């Protein structure tokens, strides 16, 4: 078995540096024990990282290099990460509590695939595009000269990337590789719960030969450094993935300097089953995916199941049967489908929400407790709540754990109303054999992503939300544009 990654230094201005604050213990949620420590930055070191990033952008070569040259450097960085594949997988298991399957496939392999594909995609984009001027407007008033009106895309500057605990490598790759490909410089600040893979990015950047200051990695136990990153005028963009509550605070902190923000926040996504999609297997596999994906700790997971009311009783039994059948246990056990949640605080939060849902009239049909056979680890049994009122807190608030609500609808219009009756709008799914109908329903769902029968999540597909699920997009061309400024350039002959 490979060992987990271990780092004794931060990465600031191109160099490994000792942390100036106390070391931070990283807890294994399956064992409730500290398995390693990492250095942490003082506020002065976060300030130094911002200054290094500012200097690198304003004076360094990175932003002025051709996109193909940046892509080549980032390919070397991806190679350096890939060389640590086994250690990254082991780190994901220990650091996040991912099952071995999820750690390998979703935590690491997808992240490495995106690390290679994002710079390659960016290198295919034009630096400028013609504006869609009417032909007559392409001539100057004398009619003797042609006016060139173009859109030029330029890097926005210094990016503060603040990442969550659930998919730490993947979300860091989305932000760091997209911003660097666009020519920005970056200060990466990971969640204190899962800081190790962020330091791996710093080591990979050094191996790849990124110019000093282009990427800086700072870890902290608290939030003072993150607050400095969001408020400091030297930072041009804050890209944050995490809870809606924290996202609101970041938006407020960024407002005085009018910097751009990219916020990928919470979700309460629906899985809307039309009558023809309730045959054997589909409903079960969808719910199993929720429970098995980081024990439900995914903002885009479809945790609200909607079915026709005449099929509700049968669907409840089927979903409850899935919840009861899934093995909850240690992440390394190949039979385990559901591992631990990240911390005692998160487990307690999930339990409070389930209790609130029951108090509001929801019926607990599976789970709702801690597995009796596991006395160590932050485990929550896969939980299913039957709700008949969409105002139930379990149907409205993000659990971020292995909790699913199931609800009946009378007709398609009511189903769409229930789907849209949420503060969130990150993702969702519609399941039907009638693709034309599925597409028409998808157009009515207010969400950043809607999948009909299946989804695609790769480097080329944008992700982001509407309403309180966020602002902006990650991945794909839309994700690159978040890290670019649009400049209008007009060229005509001298008078």
From TrEMBL:
Gene3D superfamilies: Aldehyde Dehydrogenase, Chain A, domain 1 (3.40.605.10), Aldehyde Dehydrogenase, Chain A, domain 2 (3.40.309.10). Keywords: Oxidoreductase. InterPro entries: Ald_DH/histidinol_DH, Ald_DH_C, Ald_DH_CS_GLU, Ald_DH_N, Aldehyde_DH_dom. It holds the Pfam family Aldedh. SUPFAM superfamilies: ALDH-like (SSF53720). Residues 18-489 form the Aldehyde dehydrogenase domain. GO terms for molecular function: oxidoreductase activity, acting on the aldehyde or oxo group of donors, NAD or NADP as acceptor. The active site is at residue 264. Belongs to the aldehyde dehydrogenase family. This is Aldehyde dehydrogenase family protein. It comes from Frankia nepalensis.
């Amino acid at each position: 078995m490979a060992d987990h990654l271990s780092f004794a230094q931060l990465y600031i201005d191109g160099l490994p540096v000792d942390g100036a604050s106390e070391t931070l213990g990283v807890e294994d949620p399956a064992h409730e024990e500290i398995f390693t420590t990492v250095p942490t930055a003082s506020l002065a070191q976060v300030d130094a990282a911002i200054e290094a990033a500012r200097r690198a952008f304003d004076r360094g070569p990175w932003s002025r290099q051709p996109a193909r040259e940046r892509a080549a450097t980032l390919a070397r960085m991806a190679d350096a990460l890939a060389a640590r594949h086994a250690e990254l997988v082991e780190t994901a298991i220990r650091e996040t509590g991912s099952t071995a399957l999820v750690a390998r496939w979703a935590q690491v392999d997808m992240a490495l695939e995106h690390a290679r594909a994002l710079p390659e995609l960016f290198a295919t984009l034009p630096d400028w595009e013609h504006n869609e001027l009417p032909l007559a407007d392409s001539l100057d008033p004398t009619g003797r000269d042609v006016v060139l009106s173009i859109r030029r895309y330029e890097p926005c500057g210094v990016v503060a990337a603040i990442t969550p605990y659930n998919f730490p490598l993947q979300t860091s790759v989305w932000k760091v590789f997209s911003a660097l490909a666009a020519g920005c410089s970056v200060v990466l600040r990971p969640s204190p719960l899962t800081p190790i893979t962020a330091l791996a990015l710093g080591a990979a950047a050094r191996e790849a030969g990124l110019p000093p200051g282009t990427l800086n990695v700072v870890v902290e136990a608290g939030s003072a450094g993150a607050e400095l990153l969001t408020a400091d005028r030297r930072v041009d963009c804050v890209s944050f993935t995490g809870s809606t509550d924290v996202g609101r605070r970041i938006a407020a902190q960024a407002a005085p300097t009018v910097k751009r923000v990219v916020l990928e926040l919470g979700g309460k996504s629906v899985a809307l089953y039309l009558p023809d999609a309730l045959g054997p297997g589909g409903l079960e596999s969808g719910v199993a995916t929720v429970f098995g994906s980081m024990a439900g700790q995914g903002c885009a997971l479809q945790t609200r199941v909607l079915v026709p009311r005449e099929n509700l009783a049968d669907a409840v039994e089927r979903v409850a049967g899935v919840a009861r059948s899934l093995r909850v246990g240690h992440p390394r056990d190949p039979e385990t489908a559901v591992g631990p949640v990240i911390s005692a605080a998160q487990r307690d939060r999930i339990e409070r929400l389930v209790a609130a849902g029951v108090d509001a009239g929801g019926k607990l049909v599976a789970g709702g407790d801690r597995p009796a056979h596991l006395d160590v680890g932050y485990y929550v049994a896969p939980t299913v709540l039957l709700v008949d009122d969409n105002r139930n807190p379990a149907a409205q608030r993000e659990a971020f754990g292995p909790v699913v609500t199931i609800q009946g609808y009378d007709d398609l219009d009511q189903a769409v109303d229930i789907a849209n009756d949420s503060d969130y709008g990150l993702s969702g799914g519609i399941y039907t054999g009638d693709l034309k109908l599925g597409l028409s329903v998808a157009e009515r769902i207010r969400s950043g992503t809607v999948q009909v029968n299946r989804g695609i999540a790769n480097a080329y597909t944008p992700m982001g939300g509407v309403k309180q699920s966020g602002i902006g997009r990650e991945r794909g061309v839309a994700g690159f544009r978040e890290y670019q400024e649009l400049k209008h350039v007009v060229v005509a002959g001298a008078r």
